[in-house]
Amino acid sequence: MSLHQIQGAPRTPALCAGAIPQLPKQTPAFNLRPRWDQKAHTRAVEQREASPYAAVINALYKAVGSYRADPHHYPSDADGWDEFLKRATAAGFTLLGYGYFSAVFQHKTQPGLAFKLGFKKEDSGAAYAAWCRANQGRAAVPVIHFMTRRTAGYVTVMNKYVPVRAAPRDVFHELDGFQRVIAWGNKDAPKHLSPAQYATARDIRNFFAGMARFDLHGENVMYCPSTDQLIITDPVSYKASAEH
């Protein structure tokens, strides 16, 4: 996501002509229609509401209200965007930036966290956030605290990082290395990446290859002052084009 920084069944063959045979009634071995698991649903809701971020997330969804982003345009182009931002501001949120698929907010009660709200069903950012959640602790992977999805979109709670333009100039060599591996598919480890950074970049490339378009540039990485390293926040975009 390129952020605009604000602040920072097979077909059944036809039977031959003639009488249609009367087949004996059979009891199916299994039900093809999945059963609604009320207990599992209840557990999921209870887990969501028990999250320490539930109050803030609920406030963000309440601010969204009836606003829905246009699937083919930036969120800010859809009717109701300005009203949504007014409600979010009144609820204590600050817009940090937005891109084609999502917007990122900070809440006054959680200054060290970012709340990424994805508006569109085809946002590959949700898949990347889930990948990050399964790969916590690895080099250049953002810290993911919580994820949830509702009708209005998904929310990812993650550490708040700073724009890459605030990073020391020497770490920009890391960005070049990440681009070579993730976006360009280079097999050799760039000299500016540590073995751990290269392993992360290689695994991102291998995991999403053929399923998404790689979109890695200066607005899709951020800087972590505490580790003095770049964080890969959103390296994939859109769905891969169908091959004919």
Q: State the helicity in percent bands.
A: 25-40%
- Strand content is 15-25%
| SS elements, strand count | 11
Q: How would you state the average pLDDT, rounded?
A: 82
> What is the CATH class name of the largest domain?
Alpha Beta
Can you give a write-up of this model?
The two termini are 27 Å apart. The protein contains six helices and eleven strands. Helix 2 (54-64) runs antiparallel to helix 3 (81-90). It is globular and about 50 Å long. The protein is an alpha+beta fold and 244 residues long.
Helix and strand arrangement:
Layout lengths: L3 E2 L32 H13 L3 H11 L16 H10 L2 E6 L3 E6 L2 E9 L5 H10 L10 E7 L2 E7 L2 E2 L8 H12 L11 H14 L3 E3 L6 E4 L4 E4 L3 E4 L5
Antiparallel strand pairs: 1-2, 2-3, 3-4, 4-6, 5-6, 7-9, 8-11, 9-10
Helix pairs in contact: 2-3, 5-6
